[in-house]
């Protein structure tokens, strides 16, 4: 496995990963966490550049 910094094209996939990571919380009665939106693409870009 190779780990590298995120590229701009990776950002939508990172949002998908964030959503998927929250989904199991719905099964334990914590839907508010599952429903929390991931960071915006703009915010992820700022994180990426930091």
């Amino acid at each position: 496995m190779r780990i590298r910094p995120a590229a701009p094209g990776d950002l939508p996939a990172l949002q998908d990963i964030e959503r998927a990571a929250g989904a199991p919380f719905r099964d334990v009665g914590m839907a508010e966490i599952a429903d929390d939106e991931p960071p915006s693409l703009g915010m992820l870009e700022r994180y990426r550049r930091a």
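Residues 9-49 form one domain. The helical segments are 11-22, 24-27, 31-34, 41-49.
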